Amino acid sequence: MSKIETIGRHTISVLVDNEFGVLARVIGLFSGRGYNIESLTVAEIDPAEKLSRITVVTSGTPMIIEQIKNQLDRLVPIHKVRDLTIDGPSLERELALVKVRGTGEKRVESLRIADIFRARVVDATIESFVFEMTGSTDKLNAFINLMRPLGLVDVARTGVAAIARGPEPL
Amino acid sequence: MSGQELTGAGIVLKALVDQGVEVIFGYPGGAVLPLYDELFKQNALRHILVRHEQAAVHAAEGYARSTGKVGVVLVTSGPGATNAVTGLTDALMDSVPVVCLTGQVPTHLIGNDAFQEADTTGITRPCTKHNYLVKNVADVGRIVHEAFYVARSGRPGPVVVDLPKDILQAKHKYTGSASVKHKSYNPQLKGETKLIEEAIELMAKAKRPLFYCGGGVVNSGTAASQLLTQFIHLTGFPCTLTLMGLGAFPASDPQFLGMVGMHGFYESNMAMHDCDVMINIGARFDDRVTGRLAAFAPNSKKIHVDIDRSSINKNVRVDVPIVGDCGRVLEDMIKIWKAKQVQPDAKALKAWWAQIEQWRARKCLTYRKSDTLIKPQFALEQLYAAIKDKDFYITTEVGQHQMWAAQFLKFEKPYHWLTSGGLGTMGYGLPAASGVQIAHPDALVIDVAGEASILMNIQEMSTVVQHRLPVKIFILNNQYMGMVRQWQELLHGGRYAESYTDSLPDFVKLAEAFGAVGLRAEKPGDVDGVIKEMITVKRPVIVDVVVDQKENCFPMIPSGAAHNEMLLGPDDVAKPVSEEGMVLV
Fold it and tell me: pTM of the predicted model, to two decimals?
């Protein structure tokens, strides 16, 4: 396209049948068509109806984002596709487990910062902590960056889970 | 039926019969032996043994595309399934409804690298509309019926059902029902009325309107083509068709401008470039049609009707997007047009048509005639003259001959032109022709081929001879991969790397070796005679038409150029192709 379109970050919620290969279908769509995946979370949310919810954070021009949604929507086992970024206010949360190793002042400092960020200590040895922290992606990034000089050795993150504000379901 | 237990294989066949299937194209192997055993014991389904699994899919495509039904394929596990991949991709790109049953190793061996095991659902996921791995015999009936529903609904496409051998042998009651209500896949058929009204308003005010229609109209059924014709006559607007859409509007109609795109008609492409309102019905703004996107129909408002929402605003931004079935939307468009008593701008239309007539007067298909060499265009003109009053079906391979066939053969109705448009699969034409001939035993079915393409599935001669299919193979033999040679001439300084085909077989003897008839034309004077004989002989025939080796396919929009920068013939000097154009395929 001639005019340059801005690239935006979008959080898309997808309701799918929890069946064989459905995640591969979604991931294959993104890789096959060259779309970005910044974060992807999936879990069964309705065992009775065998439904899973996939939350995918992606980025692209408005035209690409529209393509992604339309391409997802035409997959056979997909029930609903919603763009939480543009369909109204929404909440995003991510959980991280952050392992910091060190002694002395650095160890104390990591604990102090964890307190400020409301991270919980879920494991401790005399030379390490594992912090559990929930929040927005930005908050997690900020925390992890602060931990880096204090002995950060390992991080596990869940990826983004997101939901629309207000009474309406997906 | 109720209460009686069947094997999984028996359930598959029963479901096929309930779906109205009459013909299966297939090739046996270890994993599908239970299915072949059941086939042996019954008479409702006819099995056509092909000679390569790719050909089974193309044959099913030929059957499907010439009838509007779902084509059915049966292949074994491992290599059977991987060989089918090209055919499945072809069917996906061209939206052809096909159900492909693949054998699989028994469930307890899946993942163990068993003999003839392949991850069929993994491999075919990106090249099918949907696929299934059946893990429980209780699901067999439901899944087979669902596969047909998915294959034919919405934008049609290929569906794979992977059947482990133990599932085929296990027993269960047959509970399937041919009518499926799918819980998540229910494509929208009716277009939004508000948008259709908006489209009609745009059309009413148009000064230089153009219909641009494609394979979606053909897929929507013969009624959609009739509605399209009715609507185009009602409006008085010109119409162009894509390669896949040929036949959706009668070629002989004065409102038809010919095919659009890279090797489309001059008048079509110029009209595309200059139009002010474009009405796209069931076409997808393919890169072969649009040329350079930035210069594509720059001053037009665009209406796009497509059953696949993801086709809309993919390559080209449109002003009025209408999601729906072409036939249904056309019906509504006609209704609204009539209700509003639309009177198009007669004066503007008259001027537009006058402009179009000027473009037409360029006679873009003109080529240099020869008394000594057979020009491929001449051969096709003579072919068309000989078949035009018959019930004929044309399939093609891929390359120059395909484009010439699209230019020189005229199609008055849908379902009669079958070509590999999206994927561009050499080797498509012969197996597709055999599928067409199975569906239409008395019709004249001709595969217009090149000598390179035909060798890609030449083994199917054995299939057509075995099943007594009087398919005609009309080879335009220039001893080159002609389209490759043409691009090398235009883009790579005439360095013909590997595009000359050495050591070609003697096609006449080859035909005879297969038990078919072989004919050859070497001079222009031979052409009519061999065509006549080809049509008269009620057996499979290969015609080797020895044509001018140097002929190029014109008109042509060079890579990266706009519609109004067409080359009309060898004397037109192209601007040097831009770097951007060089990387395009």
Answer: 0.95
